[in-house]
# Entry
Amino acid sequence: MNLVFLGPPGAGKGTQAKRLAQELKLKHISTGDILREAVKEGTPLGKKAKEYMDRGELVPDELIIALIEEVVPDSGGVILDGFPRTLEQAKALDAMFEKKGLSIDKVILFDAPDDAIVERLSGRRSCPSCGAVYHVKFNPPKENELCDTCGTKLVQREDDREEVVRKRLEVYRKQTAPLIEYYEAKGLLVRLDASKDIASVYRELESILN
Ligand code: ADP
Ligand code: ADP
Ligand code: ZN
# Structure
């Protein structure tokens, strides 16, 4: 099964994708996670991507498409989380899947109101070491500010600061939201009410897939 998780930043795509990928034995591909890792390691990709990410803009399509071509396996099933984010990327994905004989089963649109999104992003804390994601209120670590998995001190992502968040929401509306229509026209879009708590959203996701 190949799924695309679509929706604004902070809607909860990554949180749900990690759980679902484990349960269904799918490969979780988060372009954001891959880019942050590349930035941390100072690879050529990371060096090119960093300035865009810091500003809350999208990294250029050609870089992202090349990256996706490297990480999508020929078989086995994937959750694409945070990709595609532009029409250009969506078309490149269609072409790539066609070449590999793969298809998208469903595009899940994570639907949540702006105030929920802003609250989620402002309280998000991430582990700089293993990438685990928490929320100060909705998904706090067991021990204050420390990662449950590896004990590292949690941080706030630079791009989760308020000015950058505003920019990212604007970028979502302009460049990514047109994909809703694109996938609706293909009959692939399923809307998920992402405004509920983490466990309820997960249950709805499971029922959509059953
Ligand atoms: P969020 O889900 O909180 O928006 P991500 O971790 O998915 O954040 O992405 C962080 C940043 O990485 C984005 O703001 C953008 O700069 C870059 N990025 C991630 N995925 C893509 C993509 N498919 N196309 C272009 N840029 C991307
Ligand atoms: P995305 O990948 O869409 O950017 P994340 O999965 O990183 O979103 O979630 C953004 C923040 O909101 C994180 O701090 C996460 O712990 C929290 N979160 C995720 N899902 C929910 C939910 N259903 N209710 C409340 N908070 C949530
Ligand atoms: Zn950790």
Summary: Residues 36 and 46 are 7 Å apart (CA to CA). Residues 127, 129-130, 132, 147, 149-150, 152 surround zinc ion (ligand 3) (CB under 6 Å).
